[in-house]
Here is the input.
Amino acid sequence: MAEQSEQSIINKLSNLIPEVSKPAQKYLAFNERLKWTLIILISYLGLSTIPLFGLGQNALQAFESLSIILGANFGSLMSLGIGPIVTASIILQLLAGSGILNIDLTSKEGRAYFQSLQKVLSILFIIFEAFIYVYMGGLTPTPGLKSYAALQVLLVVQLAIGGFLVMMMDEVVSKWGFGSGISLFIVAGVAQSIFVRLLSPFTTAGTLGYPFSQLPPVGKVFEIFYSLANSDVKTLALAFWAIIATAIVFVISVFVQAMKVEIPLSFGRVRGYGLRWPLNFLYTSNIPVILVAALMANIQLWARLLQNWGRPILGTFTGNSPSSGLVLWLEAPLIFNKLITGSLVPFDILHAFVYILFMIGGAVLFSIFWVHTSGMDAKSQAKQILASGLQIPGFRADERILERVISRYIMPLTVMGGIAVGFLAAMADISGALSRGTGILLSVMILYQLYQQIAREHLMEMSPMVRKFIAE
Here is the structure.
């Protein structure tokens, strides 16, 4: 009774939160989905340029690489980014996966309750993180003002509004567009970062670089000319390597994303006809990496805020770089850059090893949790296959038999895929690519999935017969 009462309270709270309604028709037109995706993307980029009113000190602007993973722009209305939503998802998955939170995710009611709980928890984290960012010194008004306390409250309100807008925009993309808003915002941040670091002619001071200034430009293409003009071999090698490393990460990501295992199936009622049920090698795709990267970003942000508060229990920073504690081990060491400059020491190798182990362990853990909380387990897949009128040749059309056969593939793929994606993300991070390696890896996966979804939607738009077949 107590559990039912708790679910009732969560469902009532969830109903109080505004929700984006689903489209009335089952299949939206291709142009309609594209329109809403572009509208949300432009809105997100526009909101990211609106500064917080009353902001004085922005101690979080040093975390540019973390802001890309969080889909945030610190100091703007989008300062929270996707952080609260992903954090809520991480906590719920850990609670559900460990059995502390007893929810039957195989039932429709259980999944609905899980989604309601995630929505309520996301709102709570939006408000909580807004308070933390302001009152722990991350985003604060100018000291000494008479209206300092009022401006603090105003900053919290603006951050909460921005976080809520991100949550709503994510729902719009999920229901009316392609993919999800979380993925879209990550791609936008990574693409912007790569463009700036590849082609920007400006220096870190905001002025035009060489030959108009003695300072090197930010863009690696212009930095190559600067290095040649100044006979700076090391800078030239670093610039070339950043471009090459980015290209390597892209190519490997596309190759691994395309790997899959195909299970032969046949139509139970129609002999001689069948198809292959694809299971991707990266079975849980980019979700584990998003969760691990968001967890690491939150730890580093909390460490900086705690240090500002005088309690550096998670580690300390010297300037903008971690110098001790947990945050130091969670910062990707640029092994290849240090190798080129000749500054590599044994500690860097140990640091890289620990970082890779953490990424792999986190990716495997979240892969297993995601399979059990998102309906990707063997039992759910068996139900979906039987509902489509398919079965494995040589086996009876029995859900238990089908589940037993599929489980031979799903759990190994979940673990091996988690190991592969964690290792790839870690190697991408330590490679010294143009943007954070994890962000590039995520962007490639997201764009690959988006391409597949757009191609499928376009095919259904062009051929009503295909849509009718899929609907059936």
User: Anything to note?
Assistant: The chain is about 65% helix and 5% strand. Residues 399-430 form the longest helix (32 residues).
